[in-house]
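Hi there,

I know you've been waiting on this one. I reran it after we fixed the sequence typo, so this is the corrected version. Both the input and the resulting structure follow.
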Amino acid sequence: MTLIPDSRRAWRSSTAAVALAAALSLISACTIPTSSSTAPEPPPLPAISLSEPDGAQGVSPLEPITLAAAEGTLDSVELLNPEGKPVDAEMAPDGTSWTTTEVLGYGRTYTLAATATGPGGTSELRSTFTTVVPDNLTMPYLMPWDGAVVGIGQPVAVQFDEPIPDRARAQELITVTTDPPVEGAFYWVNNREVRWRPENYWEPGTRITVDANVYGQDLGNGLYGQSDQRSEFTIGDAVIAVADDYAKTITVSVNGTVVMTMPTSFGKASAPTPNGTYVIAERHREIVMDSSTYGVPVSSADGYRTDVEWATRMSYSGIFVHSAPWSIADQGRRNVSHGCLNVSPANARWFYYNTKPGDIAVVRKTVGGTLNGLDGLGDWNIPWSQWKAGNAEA
């Protein structure tokens, strides 16, 4: 066995150590040092957006107020009216949006408070806004009234309590729905009242719904609708009364069948009853007829102030079918009235009970002119071509 001297053994150990150190150095030199990781950005706070800017003025009371949350969900939302009462609203199932369901009032300031929470924390929003302040308000009144049964000649009437500056806009806000469907058109009889009717008389049984959706709408010059209104009514039997001056009779038919003929006295030569188509209106068990209400002084030769029974209105210019016991001898023979259709008490009572608003009365063959189409009950005397063309821009 050959022994290695200690000096050579030491040299070999030293050489191995150097080689190991070099190897370790090489390994270290080939390794890219890494820096410490950058801290992640914190999630953003929830963003709450409102449909109206804070402090907004002139907000429409019709438009829903909406709220939306991003990067989170809404925890609570409360919109208070000036009295501190919460406004009705709905939250979306996922909590990301909120919408009012209550129509707001005019000229009112509302206060909103909302919070939203998300991964980034909680956000709050506080805001106020004020709805539009009208210069004036107008209420629409619908005729016929809701639930009424009326005659085949009854026009739809929407009466406003203020003159309407923008009549075309008002018409757009009125909807007439019929079952079965019927073509019709609007026509203004004055600056406060618009009518709607078909070309021909209604068919019995027709159902009509009228909606005047004017609330929150500017009808011109700052005049806003006070309230929406709706009426649903039905057309009853076809009742037509024909008053013929040649025969001096009134003949009443129901659904095409004559049910009554009665003698009558028309307006005398100085006050002839106008010809044309009339729409029956209200009825009076008793009424005082005063010529001064139609421009004829009671003290004049043609003036009168008379208590009358069983009076059924045919025109707003003062023509009625009514009881006239003083002219029974003239009825069916000669004309002696101031324009009304005089009939006996029994016949006046029958007419009172067997006609209804909207029924048709036709006067023909008198020496008078024609009932004015703008009388208020003379709508059918306006030719359909003129009616359909309308007069909203007039």
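Quick highlight: The radius of gyration is 43 Å.

Best,
R. S.
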